[in-house]
C-alpha cells in the first residue's frame, strides 16, 4: 500500500536529507529558547518539514533532481570555504614555515622559517622577491 503510494514519487535525496536535518535542528533549537526565538525556530522547523514533504512526494522528478544538483553545488562551495578556514588555522599552527603571497600572481608560497633574508622564486610565475623568513 505504501509502496504503491510512493510509486512515481520522488522520495529522498541529499537536499531532502539536509531539509530533514535542518528541521530537526530547528526543533531542538526551539526547545532551547523561549518567546519569540522559540516561535521563529518552530516556524522554520515547519517550513523545512513542508519543503521536505513537498519534495519527497513530488511527481516532478526532473525538477527535484535539478534542485538537488544545485543544492550539491552550493554545498560543495560551503565545504570548500570551511576547508579554507581550517587551512588558515593550519597555517597559524605551522611554526616551521612562513607563508607569503607572490606579489605578481597572488599564489601562496611556503618557505622555511628562520633563515634571515631570502630570495624567493615563485614556482608559478618565476617572479623573484626578497623576504625575511
Ligand atoms: Zn607568482
Dominant shape: elongated
What helical percentage do the residues reach? 55-70%
Query: How many individual domains?
Result: 2
Widest sheet, order of strands: 1-2
- For the terminal residues, how far apart are their CA atoms? 71 Å
Count of DSSP-assigned helices: 4
- Give the low-confidence spans: none
Overall average residue pLDDT: 91
Rg, nearest Å: 25 Å
Task: Profile the largest sheet.
Answer: 2 strands, antiparallel
Associated small molecules:
zinc ion
Structural class: alpha+beta
Q: Percent of residues in beta strands? A: 15-25%
Oligomeric category: single chain
Number of strands: 4
Order of helices and strands: HHHHEEEE
How would you sum up this structure, described in words?
- With 133 residues, the chain is of the alpha+beta class.
- The protein has two domains: 1-93, no CATH class; 94-133, no CATH class.
- The protein has helices spanning 2-6, 14-32, 35-56, 61-93; strands spanning 97-101, 108-112, 117-121, 128-132.
- The strands form two sheets. A two-stranded antiparallel ribbon has the order 1-2. Strands 3-4 form a two-stranded antiparallel sheet.
- Strand 3 and strand 4 (128-132) form a beta hairpin.
- The longest helix has 33 residues, at 61-93.
- 6% of the residues are buried.
- Zinc ion binds at residues 102, 104-105, 107, 122, 124-125, 127.
Amino acid at each position: 500500500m505504501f509502496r504503491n503510494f510512493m510509486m512515481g514519487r520522488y522520495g529522498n535525496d541529499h537536499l531532502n536529507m539536509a531539509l530533514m536535518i535542518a528541521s530537526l535542528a530547528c526543533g531542538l533549537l526551539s526547545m532551547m529558547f523561549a518567546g519569540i526565538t522559540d516561535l521563529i525556530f518552530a516556524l522554520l522547523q515547519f517550513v523545512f518539514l513542508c519543503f521536505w514533504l513537498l519534495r519527497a512526494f513530488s511527481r516532478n522528478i526532473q525538477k527535484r533532481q535539478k534542485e538537488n544538483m544545485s543544492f550539491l553545488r552550493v554545498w560543495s562551495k560551503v565545504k570548500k570555504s570551511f576547508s579554507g578556514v581550517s587551512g588558515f588555522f593550519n597555517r597559524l599552527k605551522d611554526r616551521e614555515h612562513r607563508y607569503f603571497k607572490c606579489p605578481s600572481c597572488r599564489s601562496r608560497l611556503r618557505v622555511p622559517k628562520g633563515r634571515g633574508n631570502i630570495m624567493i622564486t615563485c614556482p608559478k610565475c618565476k617572479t623573484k622577491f626578497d623576504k625575511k623568513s
